[in-house]
Design goal:
about 140 residues; mainly alpha; N-utilizing Substance Protein B Homolog, Chain A; 7 helices; about 0% strand; globular
């Protein structure tokens, strides 16, 4: 597994864990950076991803709600929310990741970790965000 793929998975784990535990994801990130719970410390790209999602949290949620067609963020499975937030950050705000790569990685996470319908949903929603990205100011 490539380093960035692992970093995305770790970022997803942090986003999901924070929501499941009802804790602030930024605080959880700082806690894990200071005292890793695994043998390997967090990849710097994991921190970049989580910090990016945090920095754009409101905009990402608003866009996901706008373009998800009948599926408000709060009704989505928690793992899908985390995957979509992560993917939306990379699609919309990351300058060093191609949109197609970000979408493919998010679909891969959904395939591994979520329902049978999730990969299609993630692909469609992130693809739509990539389409409308030029119109967002």
């Amino acid at each position: 597994m490539a380093a960035r793929t692992k970093a995305r998975k770790r970022a997803l784990d942090l986003l999901f864990e924070a929501e499941a535990r009802g804790v602030n994801v930024g605080d959880l990130l700082h806690e894990r950076l200071a005292a890793p719970v695994t043998d390997a410390p967090l990849n710097p790209y994991t921190a970049t991803l989580v910090e990016g999602v945090i920095a754009h949290w409101r905009d990402i949620n608003e866009l996901l709600n706008t373009y998800s067609q009948g599926w408000p963020v709060e009704r989505m499975p928690a793992v899908d929310r985390a995957i979509l937030r992560l993917g939306a950050f990379e699609v919309l705000y990351s300058e060093d990741v191609a949109e197609a790569v970000a979408i493919s990685e998010a679909v891969g996470l959904a395939t591994q970790l979520s329902t049978d319908d999730s990969p299609k949903f993630v692909n469609g929603l992130l693809g739509r965000l990539a389409q409308v990205k030029p119109t967002l100011a």
